[in-house]
Specification:
It is built from seven helices and no strands. By secondary structure, the protein is an all-alpha fold. α1 packs across α6, α2 crosses α7 and α4 packs antiparallel against α5.
Length: about 190
Amino acid sequence: MYSTISILRSEHTALVTLLRTATSLVATSRERGGLPDFTILRAMLFYIAEFPERHHHRKESELLFPKLRARTPLARPLLDHLDEDHMRGESRVRELEHALTAFEMLGEARRAAFEKALGRYVDFYLVHMSLEEHEIFPLADRVLHARDWEELDAAFTAGRDPLTGADPQAEYVELFAQIRRHLPEFDQA
């Protein structure tokens, strides 16, 4: 497997873990009759806006997808759909952040709306990532040339997602430490 695909899969796994953890935190708070930890939920949404939305999606849309379009017409409608998802991603996370703020400021009256928005967001991302992993990545493996992979691997190796084990930039160290404390695979760290 090429580094690009491995990196993308690890970034997807990190995002799925984070989204499921956020969902679990909210569900557990409901079961216990209390409020969730809004600080960690805000940190998680901020992470999504900073990394998957600004870095991960940009690399897919600006580097991987154009190479696929140049090599084959087979996936153009799907690539267009995924690019549209990427373009709307930041506004979707902002809407979710707004729903979280409403829940935090206005209390239980806004819990159901936030939970519904979070569920829609998680469902959207799971479908999006599944399309990439089951349709786009195998197609890329079949049609891209060695030179394409060399260029992609060099680009995707730079600026890796800190939730996949890369060292975060200094300004993000505390953010990622806070998030990692809440993610299941980091409980023992």
